[in-house]
Amino acid sequence: MQQLVAELEQARIGYVRLNEPLAGYTTWKIGGPADLFLIPGTEEELSAALTLLHRHGVPWCVLGRGSNTLVSDKGVRGAVIKLGDGFDDVRFEGNTVIAGASYSFIKLSVMSGKEGLTGLEFAGGIPGTVGGAVYMNAGAHSSDISRILQSVDITWEDGSRAVLGNDQMAFSYRHSILHERRGIVTRAVFRLANGDRKEIAAALASFKDRRLRTQPLQMACAGSVFRNPPNDHAARLIEAAGLKGQREGAAEVSQLHANFIVNHGGASAEDVLTLMRRVQQTVEQTYGVSLVPEVLLLGER
Ligand SMILES: Cc1cc2nc3c(=O)[nH]c(=O)nc-3n(C[C@H](O)[C@H](O)[C@H](O)COP(=O)(O)OP(=O)(O)OC[C@H]3O[C@@H](n4cnc5c(N)ncnc54)[C@H](O)[C@@H]3O)c2cc1C
Ligand SMILES: NC(=O)C1=CN([C@@H]2O[C@H](COP(=O)(O)OP(=O)(O)OC[C@H]3O[C@@H](n4cnc5c(N)ncnc54)[C@H](OP(=O)(O)O)[C@@H]3O)[C@@H](O)[C@H]2O)C=CC1
Ligand SMILES: C=C(O[C@H]1[C@H](O)[C@@H](CO)O[C@H](OP(=O)(O)OP(=O)(O)OC[C@H]2O[C@@H](n3ccc(=O)[nH]c3=O)[C@H](O)[C@@H]2O)[C@@H]1NC(C)=O)C(=O)O
């Protein structure tokens, strides 16, 4: 690892830390340390970092805002990559928006509305990055990334780069090709339509109001814990099974939204996983439905 760190520093990879605690990089505020934590600032630095990691046989993963991720208490063996400043930009060209992968998805939504462009209103309350949103095909209010994405710049794990069009992304409900082939989104291009600024602002405000009423936004959480089963809602099943308010340590099935698990402060990943298993077992026994996690588990168990 010492040799790898020396080579990363020689290649001027912006930010390299050993044993970096990850809890602060997730919205659940949970998780142990990463052996190695890298913040490449440019595509060149990213490619160089991936090449060196590959050469040294060190496994890696990429973290956006950590708003859909549960990091294990033992943390991550290998490297965690977080894209830096060179990926935090946005520009508008006619009806097209080009955004860096670490750009805030919420800010992208608000900025597009201010430009009089419609199509990204659904993203107003999704507190992740553009890269995480593409990976997840994030969606809300009957829309998702697949409806507006034109193309994506990707760096594959061998350091090579490609541009993939929407039809090459294998999008489906909370799924993209990146679940099957390891690569890092560096930039995304969205095709929007001309709209009325006031109407877009009104739609954003109404979605925001609905979220504030129905989701525990002020609490540390990671959005919906389970995917919705076909033609139903995980939240409906969890509430009907009497699980709202169930606790394990400082983790609780939210009283406001049954498919959210909130951290009251100091919850461990094991607390959350124990609660998730209890929810799955109870819903399976009561309704015969297997709930599948939407949140992603990262790190050593
Ligand atoms: C309050 C709240 C509300 C939410 N509401 C919604 C909602 O309405 N709809 C919805 O879909 N989600 C929602 N979420 C979940 C979450 O915000 C989304 O899944 C979001 O897209 C995750 O983005 P992120 O950057 O935080 O990803 P992370 O959690 O950091 O990562 C998620 C996955 O994406 C991968 N990834 C991250 N960046 C990249 C990249 N640059 N290239 C390749 N892979 C990458 C990671 O490796 C990981 O596998 C909500 C979460 C919260 C806390
Ligand atoms: N529960 C959790 O674990 C987490 C929840 N969140 C929630 O996500 C939202 C965004 O948080 P954050 O990324 O830190 O950004 P901020 O709350 O700092 O807001 C950044 C910008 O986005 C706007 N904005 C925030 N929410 C919305 C929305 N739903 N619709 C439209 N515009 C919005 C804000 O406008 P304005 O000031 O006018 O609202 C502001 O201009 C907040 O509601 C926050 O509570 C975020 C992170 C973790
Ligand atoms: C938050 C996420 O996305 C959210 C997205 O914000 C919203 C809005 O479009 O729709 C999905 O939630 P959801 O299906 O729970 O939507 P909601 O409108 O909140 O609830 C649906 C229905 O479930 C029932 N419901 C909801 C909450 C609750 O505590 N109890 C309950 O019974 C209600 O009948 C309600 O009508 C996405 N979740 C999934 C897993 O698809 C996420 O993916 O992280």
TrEMBL record:
Record-linked SUPFAM superfamilies: FAD-binding/transporter-associated domain-like, Uridine diphospho-N-Acetylenolpyruvylglucosamine reductase, MurB, C-terminal domain
InterPro entries: FAD-bd_PCMH (IPR016166), FAD-bd_PCMH-like_sf (IPR036318), FAD-bd_PCMH_sub1 (IPR016167), FAD-bd_PCMH_sub2 (IPR016169), MurB (IPR003170), MurB_C (IPR011601), MurB_C_sf (IPR036635), Oxid_FAD_bind_N (IPR006094)
Enzyme class: oxidoreductase
Pathway terms, separated by semicolons: Cell wall biogenesis; peptidoglycan biosynthesis
Pfam family, one: FAD_binding_4
Protein EC: 1.3.1.98
Catalytic reactions of this protein: UDP-N-acetyl-alpha-D-muramate + NADP(+) = UDP-N-acetyl-3-O-(1-carboxyvinyl)-alpha-D-glucosamine + NADPH + H(+)
This protein's UniProt keywords: Cell cycle, Cell division, Cell shape, Cell wall biogenesis/degradation, Cytoplasm, FAD, Flavoprotein, NADP, Oxidoreductase, Peptidoglycan synthesis
Co-factor requirement: FAD
PANTHER family reported for this sequence: UDP-N-ACETYLENOLPYRUVOYLGLUCOSAMINE REDUCTASE (PTHR21071:SF5)
Protein's recorded name: UDP-N-acetylenolpyruvoylglucosamine reductase
Organism: Cohnella silvisoli
Name of encoding gene: murB
